[in-house]
Amino acid sequence: MVLRLKDFIKKIRACKTAAEERALIARESASIRTALKDSVSSSHRHHHVAKLLYMYMLGYPAHFGQMECVKLVASSRFADKRLGYLGIMLLLDEHSETLTLVTNSLKNDLNHPNMYVVGMALVTLANVASEAMARDLAPEVEKLLGSSNSLIRKKAALCAVRVLKRAPDLHEIFMPRARSLLSERNHGALLAGLSLLELLYAQQPATLIEFRKAVPSLVKALKQLITTGYSPEHDVSGITDPFLQVKLLRVLRLLGAGNATATEAMADVLAQVATTMDGSKNVGNAVLYETVRTVLAIDADSTLRVLAINILGRFLAHKDNNVRYAALTTLLATVQVDGNAVLRHRTTVLECLRDPDVSIRRRALELASALTVASNVRVMVRELLAFLDDADAELRPTVVAHICTAADKFAPNQRWHLDTLVRVMKVAGAHVRDETVAQFVRLVTNAPELQAYVVRKLYALLKTDHSQAGLVRAGIWVIGEYGDLLVQPGAAPAPDDAEDDDNGTTDALRSVALDEDGPNEAEVVALLERVLTAANSTVVTQLAITALMKLAARFHEPAVVQAIQALLARYRTSMVLELQQRSVEYLNMFNLDPELRRGLWECMPVMDLACPPTQVDRARRCGAPVVADLMADLLAMTGAAPAAEPKMGTAKAIVDPLDLLMGGPVPAIPSMSTGSGNAIDLLGSAPTPASASPAIAASTPPALFADLAHTVMAPAVRRASLHTGPLVPSAASTGPSIGGYDVPHLAYESAHLLVQLTPTSAAPGIIQVNATLAHRGGVNVPVTDLQLLVAVPKSLKLQMGPLSATRLGVGEVGAQTFRIANPGKVSPVKLRLKVVYACAGEGVDKVVDFRFPESVV
């Protein structure tokens, strides 16, 4: 006796354990296999296949029933065909070899007089059609698109979508029928026809010209939908067929883009939808959202665009997070089209910065940054600074970057610009990029009337808090340069004017007490001593001892100078070679004449606010290696003419203000001896190794000046040396280094690209790696889609920064920074790099293994 499906399901549900269920399935599967081997009647085959499909839906194997499904499809009974087609859709896919046996049955059923049989064949073909099957049955599908039955036309249109996906070259067959479907009155057939139109446009954009003739009929259909009263058959939450309305709006967006005639034809109905649609429910919001996207995509007039943007403004106040996020994303894309209309909703956008949802806060931050212009920069930056106080750690780097970018582009005056950067460094100094600190230094050197104000402001802030890395670096540099203004009596802070009362800073910054008389020399040195004691970075220590040496040349109290000497003497035995060398050389300078020492430590000249890499590019275009020339650079920055022109074949290196802060290996400096009385000779020169070549020996700098130039020249020379063609040891790599630190290491080289990694010690157990990616110029074609991916062993932790540029022109340089946490001091540190880019039509995807020297831990 054959067990019927109903009884089989009851037995399955009666099983108390999974093991009992598996045993029952195994017994029934064996029984079905045995029965199928024998010749069974059609009714028994129907029951067996039905049970197999139920087993399959429970997750058990049922592939042995595929041929029985094919036999059922060939049956003349409707029930057998229905179950057979269901089994084919479940058990087979387009790659199954058994599917070829179904093609003939499908062809016969597509011509069947029964509309339901035709419908089943179309649904099956739309789900499992392979390329060969699509080509064989495309004529039948095309013929059914002209059927008098709307149900058949709808299913034929959906089947045609599958056929075109598998065989795109058949689009010519379906074009006439697709145009006729756009005049359908049946909602289902029209919806399927619109889907077919979208696919035809995606595969053949030229077909859009033909379909634009149907714009009036589509506009008429949309108008009927929004003006028709209640229709039980199509009503969804009080709106007539919102699915069709959304699809119509999408197609109108395609047809109206870039065409004034089509835009004019649909403008009225779009305005009608925007003004009459109920936005209290999610269904209405979906239609309104598509309307807004359509209005913004076509060449609509300003009134209609303002109406669309106002709808997005209402979305921003919606309680649903998804609606608000969609509105923010659309407004962000609209800023470039109609920024003034978006600015009207600035207050609502700023309120979204305090939303509990982090995705909305992030999108609102991007939109607020895009809305910042010169006329509202004070208000926008003030709001962003307030947001920065409470921002999550993961958002702070982004907020800092947006604030600094806005300040650099739209600062109304220097005072406001400096106050804004100081406020950012005070609140989130750990997230401030090196470029921001360098920009702050350049601004200070270009504002002599504000130098006294800035140095006292930073001094007061460092007295209360020196935990923010960016603030500490900027403060040390400014105090070292302008310490004489800090202790000078009567150097009052820059007066506040009415315009600066709304400069984006907060009361916490303005409340910093600025003593009119300023601190005395001993208090300044005591502050730097506290910074040295708390320093957890070699860079900060380097900056602090250099600042102390500058102050020793400008302060006059003997006790203070002796205290500075004592502080410098602490590092004569430092385990960090760089600090030890600086300490010894600085202490030796106290034996010089005070006037000579004061001349050596004069204030830095005014720095160019322009980006220094452009000057390096000019040197590279000369076609010669970049040679560091300290005195020539200093003269160039002050506008003075150099004493002598450089020799042919050389180009001056550029002083990068960031390098002044961060430090780096020293390049070679040409000798400037003019006689036995040269001041450099008084300090003593480093001996030249006997094995050095004459060219190198001639340009070896004195040991003292090599160290003084250490922070000024190295990174600029390193960057420039990447463009000089073949790899040769640069001057930067021959300077003193700490066991592999601060030295560029070649990681990857090809005809197109060069990748170098420079490790620095950020903190004990923390390695900061600066990756430099340079276009080699092997071909005169830019490198595009550039990516640098890094992987480390499980014992290490990796934090990646963004790549500065994904496209590099010939000779251009990109940079990327990442940090490696090595708490176990594993040596050597191993990396696996993946370099991905495209150049000259060729895609490159290379994986390379790299290891630092064992001293880099």
From TrEMBL:
Keywords (alphabetical) are: Cytoplasmic vesicle, Golgi apparatus, Membrane, Protein transport, Transport
Show the Pfam families listed in the entry: Adaptin_N, Alpha_adaptinC2
Domain of life where this protein originates: Eukaryota
Name the predominant localization: membrane
GO BP annotations of the record are:
cytosolic transport; intracellular protein transport; vesicle-mediated transport
User: Subunit comment for this entry?
Assistant: Adaptor protein complex 1 (AP-1) is a heterotetramer composed of two large adaptins (gamma-type subunit APL4 and beta-type subunit APL2), a medium adaptin (mu-type subunit APM1) and a small adaptin (sigma-type subunit APS1). AP-1 interacts with clathrin.
Q: Which PANTHER family match?
A: ADAPTIN, ALPHA/GAMMA/EPSILON
Query: What family does this chain come from, according to its entry?
Result: Belongs to the adaptor complexes large subunit family.
Protein's UniProt name: AP-1 complex subunit gamma
Q: What is the lineage of its organism?
A: Eukaryota, Fungi, Fungi incertae sedis, Blastocladiomycota, Blastocladiomycetes
